[in-house]
Specification:
4-stranded antiparallel sheet, disordered N terminus
């Protein structure tokens, strides 16, 4: 598979060194429009090297880049016949899959109150937590290689330790409706949960006891669907069934937000304060992805989170309300059912479905905003098979591919036919996502899919409770 352009090998000219004679015009046209950047085909310079670092290129920034590039090539060669099926029998639909950070354990959240644990390398069943909750298990999140949290329609969150699975570490009470997803701030070691009660609640896992953890309500909004933290935990994104995407900038989880107390940013921000630089997404009808136009090209999330680049020095937890536009759906609102973030923070991945197809009870059809501050970079249309169930898609560990539930299987999608880095193939106008491969091994609608963080492996789970693993055969 192709690698993103980077500086040529050899010593870089310093500020006081003569770079030598002009090597002449590059026989291939440069891929960047910036005249100050000589492009990937020209000899490296200090500016090119610095820009490469800004984009997350090179061993100094991402030592695993070459490894993930090789893994991407393996993913493209996976065949459906190479899948290993793990039947969950009577445990109901598979709502969520989650690998431990070291890839040694695959956890499965099931409809019928169970959590299953598998060894993804040997494809063997390890353990069943038969009464993990009193209702559907919706989401699983690892805090580290041994501790993980589960949430449920029984309104609770449970903490578990892989070393002692016979009992919960503790049960957390605070939500008043179905709890749908869990995030973890690695900087503050705070657990963040969201539910259909519209609340985002913060849990202090540093002071956990058998009776629970200290907690507080952090944020509230109507029609909340999904909540995510950016990889550096500097922003919180929230999607709603009424078609809005909310972004809390310069996130401070230690600061309680009462309704109406948070500052609201203007819908149109300056180009220097762009937040999510580019996006690719997939949805039942089409994909809308939020990103602000940036004339200087895409930047890394680390660069974008500096306080000096916030609009007018905006205070912590500033709120921005965005309205993603979906091609062909301008005359009706869209429910944002799935929300994922690029592992480098470069893009937001949305699955949007028309509110006339998948209307949540009480969710209004949103009038389309006449002005939209989002930039759609990639999209693809999918039939809404298994209507009424949320399909969870995901990015590969290197962010080059998307795995999307598609009928009775999954589709591997790329930003171009070569699975290039998003920043290396960013289009001027919205382009279709490219289908790299389709994998079908289920006999029912696939609801969730996940890439292993360490191995060349993909897992998928379906409505009838079957889990499949896909991996190359050597």
């Amino acid at each position: 598979m192709s690698k993103g352009p980077g500086p040529e090998p050899g010593p870089e000219p310093g500020p006081g060194l003569d770079p030598g004679p002009d090597p002449g015009p590059d026989p291939k046209p440069p891929r960047h429009s910036d005249p100050a950047d000589p492009g990937p085909g020209a000899p490296g310079g200090l500016f090119t090297w610095l820009r490469g670092r800004c984009l997350g290129r090179g061993a100094a920034v991402d030592p695993a880049r070459d490894t993930f590039g090789a893994m991407t090539g393996l993913y493209a060669a996976i065949q459906p016949a190479d899948s290993v099926s793990l039947s969950t029998r009577t445990h109901g639909a598979v709502f969520n899959l989650e690998y431990s950070p070291d890839g040694s354990v695959l956890t499965v959240a099931c409809e019928q109150t169970e959590v299953l644990l598998f060894d993804p390398i040997s494809s063997k069943h390890i353990k069943t937590l038969s009464e993990a909750h009193e209702d559907c298990v919706n989401n699983i999140r690892f805090l580290d290689n041994r501790l993980f949290a589960t949430c449920s329609d029984d309104t609770t969150i449970a903490l578990w330790d892989l070393r002692k699975l016979n009992t919960k570490v503790c049960t957390l009470h605070g939500h008043t409706s179905w709890v749908k997803n869990i995030e973890y701030d690695t900087n503050t070691r705070l657990l963040v949960t969201s539910g259909f009660d519209g609340n985002v609640i913060i849990w202090d896992t540093n002071r956990c006891t058998e009776d629970g953890c200290p907690h507080k309500k952090f944020f509230h909004t109507r029609f909340l669907m999904r909540m995510r933290l950016t990889p550096d935990c500097s922003k919180m994104l929230i999607s709603t069934s009424s078609g809005y995407l909310l972004i809390l900038h310069d996130l401070d989880l230690n600061k309680s937000l009462e309704v109406g107390s948070y500052p609201i940013l203007r819908a149109r921000r300056t180009t220097s304060s762009s937040d999510i630089t580019s996006s690719g997404s997939s949805g039942p009808r089409a994909v809308g992805s939020p990103c602000h136009q940036n004339n200087s090209g895409p930047l890394s999330e680390k660069t974008l989170s500096r306080p000096s680049q916030r609009e007018g020095g905006s205070p912590r937890n500033s709120l921005e309300v965005l309205t993603p536009e979906v091609p062909g759906e301008r005359d009706r609102g869209n429910c944002i059912t799935s929300l994922q973030l690029h592992p480098k923070g470069w893009a937001t991945l949305l699955r949007c479905s028309s509110n006339t197809d998948d209307q949540e009870e009480g969710a209004p059809v949103r009038p389309v905003s006449p002005r939209c501050s989002l930039r759609l970079t990639h999209c693809i249309e999918e039939a809404n098979v298994g209507r009424g169930y949320i399909k969870e898609l995901c990015f590969s560990p290197d962010g080059r591919m998307i795995s999307s539930p598609h009928g009775f299987g999954i589709r591997l999608l790329g930003f171009d036919a070569h699975c290039s880095e998003l920043v290396d193939c960013l289009p001027r106008e919205a382009s279709p996502l490219r289908e790299i491969r389709s994998l079908y091994s289920h006999n029912d609608v696939v609801l969730t899919t996940k890439f292993s963080p360490t191995h060349c492996q993909i897992a998928s789970g379906c409505l009838s409770g079957r889990v499949s693993l896909y991996q190359p055969k050597f």
